[in-house]
Automatic annotation (TrEMBL):
Binding-site list for Mg(2+) 2: D45, D73
Top-rank EC class of the record's enzyme: transferase
Additional detail: Reaction mechanism of ThiL seems to utilize a direct, inline transfer of the gamma-phosphate of ATP to TMP rather than a phosphorylated enzyme intermediate.
Pathway: Cofactor biosynthesis; thiamine diphosphate biosynthesis; thiamine diphosphate from thiamine phosphate: step 1/1
Family per record: Belongs to the thiamine-monophosphate kinase family.
InterPro entries: PurM-like_C_dom, PurM-like_C_sf, PurM-like_N, PurM-like_N_sf, ThiL-like
Matches recorded under NCBIfam families: thiL (TIGR01379)
Chain residues that bind Mg(2+) 1: T44, D45, D120
Domain PurM-like N-terminal positions: 26-135
Sequence positions that bind Mg(2+) 4: D28, T43, D73
Name of protein: Thiamine-monophosphate kinase
Residue positions binding substrate: H52, D260, Y317
Length: 321
């Protein structure tokens, strides 16, 4: 199948259609309309087989994750997603695989009212690059640099599930039944916290999503805000499934250091803390306070039952070149 036949057959039609897309797939560029009194947030992420997803992962999950990680970046800035473009590199064309991939892609974009407006397809090693764009009211973008000592530290959802799910798929962790299904799904089908991100614009001082692990991603906020943090390990939100398949020490390890959860880490000032529950009330997302920021620049102090705690292994994932 030729490139333009592939695009026409699988990507030119279908999916969510937005009124602010003037020209979509089929021309040299997409043309869109940015609403008045809105700023445009733009993010790009590349996923490579064997690095960001297992080579034998289901096509639907690959598409879902590629979209979700970009929407998660928008959520961490408090942006409402609008459009994505996709660059897809395939070693060969398997129509059954592509049909499943497109199904996963459109399932998530439909849910979040996001339109695919363009991109590219090439033959090569399996990789996907998505650029996502969304809207933010002027001056309300959540940034990593606005946290201050004394701010309270929160996370959404539960932590460590996706890392455990990956280990299950790689036979590094044994799990059965509902617990296995839950943890594997958390790895393959992450949930971008879009509603929580937009709600937090009114209350959070800084925010980031958990892609490389809690401690690794928290360090970005601390570095850019010039703060430190005290994290209470015993307050980390850990799912029932993760507690069931590991001992508590291993669960702490996953929650602190494993990536791919795509939950939000955010900070809230003492003055705004009372408004947090109200801000998140309509999102159906639970947030847990796990500590507080300090004035010790870029230092993360871990405590377990108010006693010093030492992480036994490396914290977080980082690409090496």
């Amino acid at each position: 199948m030729k490139e333009f036949d592939l695009i026409g057959r699988y990507f030119s039609e279908g999916g969510h259609q937005r009124k602010d897309v003037v020209v979509g797939i089929g021309d040299d560029c997409a043309v869109t309309t940015v609403a008045e009194n809105q700023q445009l947030a733009v993010t790009t992420d590349t996923l490579v087989a064997g690095v960001h997803f297992l080579a034998d992962a289901p096509a639907r999950s690959i598409a879902h994750k590629a979209v979700a990680v970009n929407l998660s970046d928008l959520a961490a800035m408090g942006a409402e997603p609008a459009w994505i473009s996709l660059s897809l590199s395939l070693p060969e064309l398997q129509e059954s695989w592509l049909e499943e991939f497109v199904s996963g892609l459109y399932e998530l974009t439909q849910y979040y009212s996001v339109q695919l407006i363009g991109g590219d397809t090439v033959r090569g090693p399996m990789a996907l690059t998505i650029t996502a764009q969304g809207f933010i009211p002027p001056g309300s973008a959540l940034q990593r640099s606005q946290a201050r000592p004394g701010d309270w530290l929160y996370v959404t959802g539960t932590l460590g599930d996706a890392g455990a799910g990956l280990d299950i798929l790689q036979d590094k962790l044994i799990a059965q039944g509902e617990e296995r299904d839950f943890l594997v799904k958390r790895h393959q089908y992450p949930t971008p916290r879009v509603a929580a991100g937009t709600a937090l614009r009114r209350t959070a001082s800084a925010c980031i999503d958990v892609s490389d692990g809690l401690l690794a991603d928290l360090s970005h906020i601390l570095r850019q805000s010039g703060c430190g943090a005290c994290v209470h390990v015993d307050k980390l939100p850990i799912s029932r499934a993760l507690r069931h398949v590991t001992d508590i020490e291993q669960a702490y390890q996953y929650a602190l250091a494993a990536g791919d959860d795509y939950e939000l880490i955010f900070t809230v000032s003492e003055e705004q803390r009372g408004n947090l529950e109200t801000s998140l009330a309509s999102t159906n997302v639970k947030a847990t306070c796990i500590g507080q920021l300090t004035g010790h620049r870029e230092n993360i102090e871990l405590k377990l039952n108010n006693q010093p705690y030492r992480l036994p292994a490396k914290a977080g994932y980082e690409h090496e070149f």
